[in-house]
Design brief:
Length: about 290
């Protein structure tokens, strides 16, 4: 598994070097957008509407819009300093609570915790303490430039860290529109509803639930592929795409291709070999 965070977590005087690995994965089927006419994948450029021109990454700054149309510019070095100050702190479990005390609305993303070098014994100690006490740990951690509230609990035989929302990130339930106030429920209707609940009650088995839409979509894709209902993108690429190469190998190849296009014209103008200047020889050998 890919390591997404590396550091340490502590409770009391016990310090555990750990690594975090993403516990879940997005299995949504990614669909590309093509030009209907030539089936070329559509690319997206960052364009400044004020200047009406494409903007390079190095020309973009980060800012906070405190009122409509007014911004506070945040320098990259200031953000990096804040990030470093928070990341250098070890994650500390500040409280132990019962899992059932936290409403599921707070839970966000799950990470498997693995002990780093020399952390196996302390890792086992924390795991045993959580299992025996029936508690989970509450901690703070800095992930991807954002401070997160998190809980540490045992999942099967592994410590699991789950980031949770801060209270001010959960919207006020009173703002939900059209929620009916309490009304008197007819007893016969309630008894029927409870009977239905009882009939549908079972033990939770995650393996019985499947993403039927994703399965059907993949079946449709395979059916069209096997029936050769496919298209091929045109080889011609927009001029802007070749000039905005970020991959090193692609940049080198693009440079070679441009040089090859210029070579025939250079050869026609070249002087005999005996009278070539050093600059001419350099261009030919390039």
């Amino acid at each position: 598994m890919h390591t997404v965070w590396k550091g340490s977590i502590s409770f009391g005087l016990v310090n555990i070097p750990i690594k975090l690995h993403t516990a879940t994965e997005d299995k949504d089927i990614k669909l590309r957008q093509l030009h209907k006419e030539c089936h070329t994948p559509i690319s997206y450029q960052k364009v400044c509407p004020g200047c009406d021109k494409e903007v390079r990454s190095e020309d973009i700054v980060k800012a906070y819009e405190y009122v409509k149309g007014k911004f506070v510019i945040l320098e990259e070095e200031d953000l990096q300093k804040l990030k470093k100050e928070n990341e250098e702190k070890a994650v500390e479990i500040i409280d132990f609570v019962k899992l059932e005390e936290i409403d599921p609305i707070y839970f966000e993303k799950s990470y498997f915790m693995a002990p780093d070098n020399g952390g196996g014994k302390a890792y086992s100690l924390l795991r045993s303490a959580l299992l025996e006490s029936g508690k989970i740990g509450v901690a703070k951690i800095m992930i991807r430039s954002k401070e997160q509230l998190a809980v540490v609990r045992v999942y099967q035989n592994t410590l699991l860290m789950e980031t949770i929302h801060f209270p001010d990130e959960v919207r006020n339930v009173q703002e939900v529109p059209n929620v009916p106030s309490e009304h008197t429920v007819v007893k016969k209707e309630l008894d029927t509803a409870l009977l239905l609940v009882d009939q549908l009650t079972t033990t939770f088995d995650p393996e019985k639930y499947h993403d039927e839409y994703r399965t059907a979509l993949m079946d449709l894709i395979e059916e069209k592929k096997n029936g050769e209902q496919t298209v091929t993108a045109t080889d011609k690429q927009p001029e802007a795409a070749t000039s905005n190469v970020t991959d090193l190998m692609s940049a080198l190849q693009a440079s070679l291709d441009k040089t090859k296009k210029k070579k025939p014209a250079t050869r026609k103008k070249a002087a005999p070999a005996a009278t070539k200047t050093p600059a001419t020889r350099t261009r030919k050998n390039a």
